[in-house]
Amino acid sequence: DTAVSQTPKYLVTQMGNDKSIKCEQNLGHDTMYWYKQDSKKFLKIMFSYNNKELIINETVPNRFSPKSPDKAHLNLHINSLELGDSAVYFCASSQALGYNEQFFGPGTRLTVL
Amino acid sequence: GNSVTQMEGPVTLSEEAFLTINCTYTATGYPSLFWYVQYPGEGLQLLLKATKADDKGSNKGFEATYRKETTSFHLEKGSVQVSDSAVYFCALSRLPHSGNTGKLIFGQGTTLQVKP
C-alpha cells in the first residue's frame, strides 16, 4: 500500500496554463506539506497544513494555491504557469506538526514549455 | 535564522570504501537532526535521526552523531555498496512553539556515486 501518493507523476504543459497536482496519504497523519525541488536538487518547503488549517506559506507566489478538503488530501493548484515553475514537487505528511518523521510521496515532475 | 550546510558533491567512491558526508547546522535552541536519502526517481526516505545532543542515529549501516559543540551531524558508513548511490540530505526541525512551525530545513543535498 502506498503511504503518500501523488498524481500525476509527470506533467508537461505550456506557459500560462493552469494545472493541479493531487496528494493523498493513508497514514492517518494530521499534517501535510508541499516541497519544491529545483534542478540542483535543492528542497524548499512551500506549504504546510495541520488538520486542514494552513500553517506555513513560505512566500510562495499567489499563483500557487493549496487546498485541503480533508486531513488525508492536500492538493496544489498552480495558475498561469511560468517557465520557472518547472521542478519536482513533493508532497509529504507527518503524524503531527513538527513530529520527527515526514513521509514523502514519489514526486511530480512539472515541465513548463 | 536556521540553516543546514552540507559538503559539495558529487562524492564518488569505490565499493567497500568508507563514507563521510559532512553536515553542519545553525539553529537557535535545540533542533532535531535528520538524514534523508533520495534514490533515483523516488521521493525522500528518512535514513536516521537524532533528537538531542550526543544522540547517535543509525540505520542500514549508516551512523550520525548529534554534536552540539561543533553543531555537526556528519553521516558515516564503514563500507558503501553500489546500492547506496543516491542523494543524501541533512535536515533540521524545531518543535513548533513560539512561532516555530516545525518545518524541515534541508541542506543542499550531496550526491553519492558508488562504483563497483
Task: Give a brief rundown of this model.
Chain A contains no helices and 11 strands. Chain A has 113 residues and is mostly beta strands.
Explained architecture:
The complex is a heterodimer of chains A (113) and B (116). With 113 residues, chain A is mainly beta. Chain A has no helices and 11 strands. Chain A has strands spanning 4-7, 10-13, 19-25, 31-37, 43-50, 53-57, 64-70, 73-78, 87-94, 102-104, 108-112. In chain A, the strands form 2 sheets. In chain A, strands 2, 4, 5, 6, 9, 10 and 11 form a 7-stranded mixed sheet that branches. A 4-stranded antiparallel sheet of chain A has the order 1-3-8-7, with no helix packed on it. In chain A, strand 9 and strand 10 (102-104) form a beta hairpin. Chain A is globular. Chain A starts with a strand and ends with a strand. The mean pLDDT of chain A is 91. Chain B is mainly β. Chain B is 0% helix and 49% strand. In chain B, strands 2, 5, 6, 10, 11 and 12 form a 6-stranded mixed sheet that branches. Chain B has a 4-stranded antiparallel sheet with strand order 3-9-8-7, with no helix packed on it. In chain B, strands 1-4 form a two-stranded antiparallel sheet. In chain B, a hairpin with a 5-residue loop joins strand 5 and strand 6. The radius of gyration of chain B is 14 Å and the shape is globular. The mean pLDDT of chain B is 92. Classes of the chains: A mainly beta (113), B mainly beta (116). Chains A and B meet through strand 5 and strand 10 of A and strand 5, strand 6, strand 10 and strand 11 of B.
